[in-house]
Amino acid sequence: RRLDSRSGLPAGLLAETQTPISSEPLDIAYEVTGELGRGKFAVVKRCVEKSSGKEFAAKFLRKRRRGRDCRAEAVHEMAVLELARNSPRVVNLYAAHETDHDLVLLLEYAAGGEIFDLCVSEELLPEAQVTRLIRQTLEGVQHLHQNQLVHLDLKPQNILLTSLAPPGDIKIVDFGLARRLGTAGELREILGTPEYVAPEVLNYEPITTATDLWSVGVIAYMLVTGESPFLGDDKQETYLNVSQVNVDYSCDALSRVSELAVDFIRKLLVKAPEDRPSAAECLSHPWLWQQPPCLNPEPVLVRPVRERSCGAKWAAPLEDKENF
Ligand code: ADP
Ligand code: MG
C-alpha cells in the first residue's frame, strides 16, 4: 500500500476525528446482544444503552488485518462518517470506543435490515416503493458527493432500512472503502465487489463520483427484477459482464418492469463515467416522480424538484409529485 510521504499513513486516508474515543469497556454502558452482520474485518452487534434503553448498532472494526496494523483504516471510516453525518440518509455515528483489538463505532440502529433482503424475497416491492427507496438513496449519494466523498461500495447489503414492514427509510452504511476526492491525487484502486462495481474500477481507471452512480443503477435493477445484472457463474465471468456492460434489456426479468424504470437503469449502466448522470440529475428522472395509478385519488401537492442541474441528461417532468 502506498504511504503518504509526510504523515507516513496510508495515502488518501482521513486521520482527523471529532468524536471522542472512549477506552471504557463497552459493556459498562451497553448491553451487547445479537449479531447483526459481519464482513472481512468487522462484526456488527446490536446493543442497548443501559441508561436510556436506546438501541444501537456497534460496529467492531478490527485494528489488525492480515497481520498488519490497520488502526488508520478504522479511524478513516470513522472520519468519513463524521463528514457525512449531516444527512438523514446516512447512518449516524453516536460514540466511539476502543479496545486492544477493535475500534468500536456506535451507530444509529437500522431495524429493517438490508435492502438486499427485498431483492431476493419471493415478492418484489411495487415500483412505487422502489422509486421511493432509490430517491432516498440518491439523496444520500448526492449529500456525499457534495462533500467530495465517494462511497465506492454501494450495494444492497450496505443500504439499510429503518423498518422492514412496511419498508421505512433508507440509511447508507459501511464507509470502509469510501474516499475523499482530491486527498490522494488521482484515485485508482481495485475496490468493492465485482458484481456492483463500475467498469472503470475493474479497469484501473480514475474513480469519480460517477462510480457510485453505476452502483445505484445496479441496485435499482436488482430491486425491480430481483436479479443481479452482471453476476456470472464465477468472478471472471462477472468481471467480463461488467466491463462489457453485458445487460440484456429484452430479458424476461425486465419485461415486467415499467419503461421509465428501464430508461433510468439504462442511463446509469453506461461504460463511460462522464456519460452517466449525476445524483442530482438522476433525482429529476421522471421514473422517480411518477404517480402510482389509483393509489391516491386525492389531489396531491405539487412540489418542484430543486437542484435540477441545467445539464440534465433528460427532460424534467412537467409536474413532479411526491408519491407517498
Ligand atoms: P462490513 O464492512 O463488514 O461490510 P457493514 O458496515 O456493511 O460492515 O456492516 C455489516 C452488516 O451489518 C450490514 O450489511 C448490515 O446487515 C449490518 N449493519 C451494519 N450497520 C448496521 C446498523 N447501523 N443497523 C443495523 N444493522 C447494521
Ligand atoms: Mg458492508
From TrEMBL:
Pfam families referenced in this protein's UniProt entry, alphabetically: Pkinase
GO-annotated biological processes: intracellular signal transduction; positive regulation of apoptotic process
Reaction catalyzed: L-threonyl-[protein] + ATP = O-phospho-L-threonyl-[protein] + ADP + H(+); L-seryl-[protein] + ATP = O-phospho-L-seryl-[protein] + ADP + H(+)
Chain sites annotated for binding ATP: K59
Domain of life: Eukaryota
Signal found in the keyword field: no
Protein kinase domain: residues covered: 30-288
Family: Belongs to the protein kinase superfamily. CAMK Ser/Thr protein kinase family. DAP kinase subfamily.
Protein name: non-specific serine/threonine protein kinase
Species per Swiss-Prot/TrEMBL record: Poecilia latipinna (sailfin molly)
